[in-house]
Amino acid sequence: MNTGFGIVDAGAALVKAGQLMKERPQGTQVPLDSHFGGGPAAVPAAPVAPRGDGQRVAFLVLALVSLAVGLVGLAAVIKTRQSRAER
User: Fold this and answer.
1) What is the pLDDT of residues 20-63, one digit of tens each?
2) Which structural domain, as residue segments, surrounds residue 87?
3) What is the rounded CA–CA span in Å between residue 35 and residue 37?
4) Which helix (H) or strand (E) holds 71?
5) Is residue 17 part of a domain?
6) Is residue 69 part of a domain?
7) Which entry of 12, 22, 58, 81 is 20 to 30 Å from 64 by CA?
8) Whole-structure pTM value
């Protein structure tokens, strides 16, 4: 079997993969429908620390400050446009 960089015949690869899925070597105890490494069930969920009330309040304050800054900026733009229109 040769390996290297070249053109892959995807159709032939899929046909060969289908043939290999039907074959089962003698003495193997791994079922054909198993996943490498145990599949999705073997991967533990990423640890996520629960947020406390302090973090919720901090995020709420941050959101309100961001909203206030945006509104002040919008008011400044409107005021600038009105003063230019009056000239």
Assistant:
1) 777 766 666 666 556 555 566 666 777 888 778 888 899 999 99
2) 54-87
3) 6
4) helix 53-86
5) no
6) yes
7) 81
8) 0.42
